[in-house]
Write a structure and sequence with these properties.
Two copies of one chain form a homodimer. The first copy, chain A, is built from four helices and seven strands, in the order βααβββαβαββ. The first copy, chain A, is α+β, with helices and mostly antiparallel strands.
């Protein structure tokens, strides 16, 4: 894989983003969203009002995407929240990690002073380890809060780090 | 105070609900919302799509309100989330506790198997104690996640109970 370029998404990226989101949403093992979510609804979720959306490109192909938003409003607006997704064919190439590191800088640049993940499915061990490697720690455990399509009820973690 | 009647809100209750929400939102010490939120935006938040909204009446006066929704979708849709607010002139009369107990039954009736509060400001000790008395436990601590207008950065708690 060549150099990774992470940039703001434009509307012409929507097809590529949906190609990345669809298999993971359909599998239903990591994001708390309906497995049969439509393309339109999924993109509305990813590009929700207030979200900044980024894509990671390698050799002119989009191989990952993430969004950033304020996790709360008012007195909670200094804490960022992100959702990340890598293309399946590009797993294991460090794209998620690169996006996470990029998001920490982008969040600082926007004045956020912390970042929170509200719902990291505990059986998604790859993600848990990656966020921990990026400085996040588990600050909460939601018991049985996720019905995994294979494992049944599993815990979800709240993860947090200062910026 | 006479008997408390808790029922579904109707559109004619919106003025009474706003009268309850406004002083607390303006104070900005408990909900992570802009202190200058408009009536329209506050009611849109309380009556967001998917929310069930209830009011508590005593002697034909609305003295409290709460909303209930699924905290997540898809694999997380079995966990309810509520927001409660009592009229300031009725504080100390057990209205919040009555609404919380009502909400636990209403959530069970809707098939929810747990309830989560995502953001209980730690300095709101009255609320923390009340939810604990209603069976909630602190399952997470979000460090400095709330900028309190008087106290500065304070923790927020994630609270949870099975139903």
């Amino acid at each position: 894989m060549g150099e990774l370029n992470i940039r703001h998404a434009v509307s012409g990226d929507r097809d590529a983003i949906w190609r990345i989101l669809e298999p993971t949403f359909r599998e239903g093992a990591t994001y708390p969203l309906p497995r049969d979510i439509s393309r339109e609804e999924a993109l509305a979720y990813w590009f929700a009002p207030g979200n900044a959306v980024f894509v990671a490109e390698a050799e002119a192909t989009i191989v990952g995407t993430y969004y950033m938003r304020a996790n709360q409003r008012g007195g909670g607006a200094h804490v960022a929240n992100c959702g990340y997704m890598s293309a399946r064919e590009a797993f294991g190439r460090g794209i998620a990690r690169a996006m996470c590191m990029h998001s920490l800088d982008a969040a600082r640049a926007r004045g956020f002073t912390a970042m929170q993940s509200n719902f990291v499915v505990s059986s998604n061990e790859r993600a848990v380890k990656l966020w921990q490697a990026c400085g996040f720690r588990i600050v909460g455990t939601l018991p049985g809060a996720f019905m995994h399509p294979e494992h049944g009820a599993v815990d979800a973690f709240v993860m947090f780090r200062e910026l």
